[in-house]
Amino acid sequence: MKIFRSRSLSVGAAILMVFALVAAACGGDDGFEGVTLKFAKAPHGEDEADNMAQWLASFQEETGITVEHTIVPWDELEATYTANFAGNDVYDVTYQTSTHLTLFGELGAFSDVTSRFNGDDYSTDRSHFPDSIVNASVYKDNLYGVPFIIGTIAMYANLDLMAEAGITEIPATGEELVAAAKAIQNPPDVWGFYTPTTVADFGWYFNLQNVHNFGGDIVSDDFESATIDSGPVRNATQYAVDLICTHEVQPRLGQYDREGAIELFKAGKLAFLLDEPSRVAVFEEEGLPFDWDIAQPVGNNGNISQFSTTGHWSIAAKSENQDAAWELVKFLSSADFSQTYNERYAFVPARDDVDSTGGNEKLARNFEWAMTTWDGLVTHPKINGLLDEYVKALEAATTCDTPVAEALAEAQARAEDLLARG
Amino acid sequence: MAEVILRQLTKRFGATTAVDDVSLRIPDGELLVLLGPSGCGKSTILRLISGLEDATSGEIAIDGELVNFKDPTERNVAMVFQNYALYPHMSVSKNIAFPLETARMPKPKVRDAVARAAEMLEIGDLLGRLPEQLSGGQRQRVALARAIVRQPLVFLMDEPLSNLDAQLRVQTRLELTALHERLGITTVYVTHDQVEAMTMGRRIAVMQSGRLQQVGAPVDVYRTPATTFVATFMGAPPMNLIDGELRADDGRWQFVREGYSLDVDPAVMGIEPAALQQSAGPVRLGVRPEHLTLAEPAAAGIPGIVQFLEPVGSDLFVSVGVGEHRVQVRMPPDAKAEREDAVRVSFDPARSHIFGSDDRNLRAGLAR
Amino acid sequence: MEGSVAAGAAEEWAELTLSPRQYRQRARRYRARTSRRAIGFLAPYTAIWAVFLAFPVGWGVWLSFNTGGILGTRQFVGFENWTRAWGDTEIRTAVRNTAVYMVIAIAVVFGLAIFLASLLNKHRRGSNFFKLALYFPLLAPPILGAMMWFFMVHFDFGVLNLILRQFGGAGINYLGENPNALLTIVAVEVWRGLGFWVLFYLAGIQAVPEELLAAGRIDGAKAWRRFARITVPTLRPLLLFALVVAIIFNAQLFDSVQVLTEGGPALGTATVVWFIFKRMFAFQDTGLAFATSVGLLLVILAATLLSFWALAKRQAREA
């Protein structure tokens, strides 16, 4: 769920956006008056700090808890959290995606929330979390955070460019996509397609649905063996490579990064773009000068699926205010908050009692794809490392200099080493 | 004011012995000049007295008190450095006041002391300037003022005149002597310039390779050098040294070299007969140029050939080849001599010296 | 002859007043007093050094023989991390990249810096402006500098490619191809370091005695020959020291890699510190990260000692 990743935020190493809002005097009687919680999250938009301040105001007023919100930039997240959790003045509550949930959780950074989550006083809320979503977040019977949102990927299509080329339907399969992109594009002025494939742009996030479509994964279900160098992964990776190196419908690696490709799309110079649905609201607000729509990322091998990670609210094991932190987690996991948040950032809520599409027809369809074809990331302490090995291979192969088999074989060997270690 | 005594002082830097077993007594109020070529250890002795270096062995006493184990700040000595070591960022008056302010003297007293020192060295009109705005001579005076202002027990001066030009050096030399006479502070003055040493010191101590060669009044040291080193280091041109052999012939001692022999009369040359006995064998005859004269080839003396003539106005220096040697003879400016002349070099035995194979003067009265 | 004595005269006043034992005792006490004072002055720094340097480095060395220790429980594993680090193909790539980077970057930055320094030394007018301009990149935060370069070398709207396209060029893919990416990193770091080295060498060149250059001139050497045969050789002792400093700096290349390429493409800009960072935080492989860090420290230390040894040897030869 590396949804938003602004370069300008990487400057923010020094800019800690701390909001210390003084709790209202009329706080509740639940004994949290005067408690201060440190709350940290990687952002889903540039406006998140302001929005959070607003959204957390009612919680602080009601409970008397002061919440200090810190924005942790995505590319500094691992280092920041490692240092923070190793110290004693920890962030009480943090937002964690499935990549890092059990990585940090199994190292003892988070409290297991299983009993609270399944507790009697939470049973009403609990019933609204589908088991399929919750189970993907459980590792060895431990749940290190309450699921909040699942991300999805959408394919943005420039309908005007399609019409000019005489294409009426948004492509739904890999072959259709290549054909349509070729028909439309006229590089370097107009490009056919873009999907991130680099380490820096979390390329794995936009390519794993294809691995699933080809009928495999990068690791066996029991996490016993790496399957990076397997048929499905080879096919999916080869497909990504062909788009750039053979069909040449996607710009060469390094010519446009993810943000650059979004600008390209907004300028009407890109026919199809893979990105997160969070852009829908942004594009609509800005008003793009052409007709556009979103579709599910194309299927392959006769399959179509939605991939994503899941975001969770975690409580630090070293937090001295476990109960107050749980109050905050309950608030952040509530239907109301989920509604508010996702109306802004367009994720699919992990609860089934929230409709966050706000009547937006595009987002409603996105919601539907997630409900019907979701094949998300299962959390595991080593999944982050496995993804890193895979995306390095993907990046190497999409430079067009390294053969797919060679890149994957290298990654496979390293992934095996990773899994073999205790 | 104090007496300074060095007792068997030795300083080694690794394998190098900079000061080698030096014993020296400087009576209260005396100006003693330490003279020697560079690297002879004379500056190291100053640094040992001041406490900037610690002695390897031996003792240093100032005013009857052992100071080996005292910090430089506790020894109450003042030092004037060759390059003056003025603080470049301080005005002249600040420079002079610095030692007093460091000693926390009250402000008004500092002002008075600075004014007195400045007056004594005639730099009253320079007090507001920075060192960079001063000439070399002025800097020298400021450095001296800074040294005297705190009325130390001992003055240590490390070649204080060597950065001045020749004329200024002569003038400052005289002023320094006058200043010393006026203040009467025990002073150790280091120089490599024998003229400075001769003119300034009541006594001079000549050093070579860390060892003390001779201590005495300048005239005595000049006239009766204890070693060949002192003989050649003092005097310009230096004392002539002629190789030869000391032989006894029928109870008569003779200095013999090829084609020439000289009777050595112990009484005339001031040598104990026993000393002659001990030094039989290769020796060197030492005579200053002014105690040599040129004579006709038929006269008595060492035969030689005139090689060069150097008229210097007041004198005529004549270089005479004697065997493989060349001796310098000082003649009146109007003396008649031509190059290639065959001559005899004769001299006054009473003013000649014989140096043994250990390079020491055989003359009696020099402790051996 | 009266009052004239030779050395070594055993006078009464020259007798030592302390026995050798007393002398040793008092010398020892004096030295102790002096060193106590020195220790007093050194203590605060020593404490800071211990807390912020010695202890962390020692702890890092210890952690290189363990797993965990930062997050998670620590467990002693002997040399396992070290053997893993030794056999790691990615470290080899990172070491190779770092070495290639260092050779190119240091050669380019030194060459440019010495050349610019001699120009600045010759043309004093306006040199303060150029010194400031050259030094400026060093004042900017590293991340900011790297971001600025990101907009310089961007394929689509980067300044460099805009200029190239003005002249009908195709535009260069600075960050997406090898070896372009590493060369771009070199450019960024040269840009950043140049000012420092120019000032460094300017100070060195200004210390070259004027008479030597004057003598060279009279001996008929043209400007370039004087530069190459007089100025540069005179800088040589400085050069070795500079090399040590440059190796220490550049062996730790990280910021611009993290901002511009994240090690890519295809590990083309993966450096040793980037690898350590990845292992430490993305993989939480603490032991491997520390083993590699300590290894890097040892290599830098060895390079430094080697350089100082070479310097000392040269000085001994010249003496």
Summarize the structure.
The complex is a heterotrimer of chains A (422), B (368) and C (319). In chain A, 42% of the residues lie in helices and 13% in strands. Chain A is an alpha/beta fold.
What labels describe this entry?
heterotrimer; A: 422 residues; alpha/beta; D-Maltodextrin-Binding Protein, domain 2; four-stranded mixed sheet; 18 helices; 12 strands; disordered N terminus; C: 319 residues; mainly alpha; MetI-like fold; two-stranded antiparallel ribbon; 13 helices; 73% helix; flat
Element-level helix/strand string of chain B: EEEHEEEHHHEHEHEEHHEEEHHEEEEEEE
Going by CATH, what is the homologous superfamily of the largest domain in chain B?
A: P-loop containing nucleotide triphosphate hydrolases
CATH topology of the largest domain in chain B: Rossmann fold
- Strand order in the largest sheet of chain B: 6-7-8-3-9-10
Instruction: Count the domains of chain B.
Output: 2
Largest protein-protein interface: A-C, 41 and 39 residues
At CATH level 2, the architecture of the largest domain in chain C is Orthogonal Bundle
Number of strands of chain B: 20
